[in-house]
Amino acid sequence: MAVENLAADVQAFTSNVFLVSGDRTALVDTGANFDVVTEIESRVDGLDTVVLTHTHGDHIGNVDDVRAAFDVETVGYDPSQPAVDTELGETVRLGDHDYTVLHTPGHKDDHVCLYAPTASVCFAGDLVFANGAFGRTDLEEGDRETLIRSIDRLHDAVDPDLGALHAGHGPSVTESAYATIERAGQAARR
């Protein structure tokens, strides 16, 4: 399984966009304000699924372009959102692994994290970031106490030897990923 951030060098307001290769080629979030379709086409022949961590504009701005180019449905927590075609179940297959879907509101009501213990990988969306940072709660649907509970839920769900934490913004964490979640929980409580 390979995970690549297609937005790594983009100089526009966007989220990270993770292409997960393997048995089931998947995109985690679509980003916004850049040509993600060309980036995908330069790497793979098609997509099997698009999973949205939440429906803020910087994470879903390219949804319509991706749907049109790859004839693929988007999967998310809240199917009443226009960017979501199908509701996530308890698990979703990305690449070669099944990921547990953890509902983690606080940044936005429909926010989820995706965790695969066999791959030791977590897609954290905008819940936690590198260096123990945490998601904003000053936007609509944001709530600090709810976010803290969601960080605690993620912390309890992942293994202490978590190998990679892919955040919605900034760099992925490949060393001390579990400690990063702990630090985010501590920082959010201050």
UniProtKB/TrEMBL annotation:
Keywords: Hydrolase, Metal-binding, Zinc. It holds the Pfam family Lactamase_B. GO terms for molecular function: hydrolase activity; metal ion binding. Transmembrane segments: none annotated. CDD domains: metallo-hydrolase-like_MBL-fold. Residues 14-169 form the Metallo-beta-lactamase domain. Its cofactor is Zn(2+). This is Glyoxylase, beta-lactamase superfamily II. It comes from Haloplanus vescus.
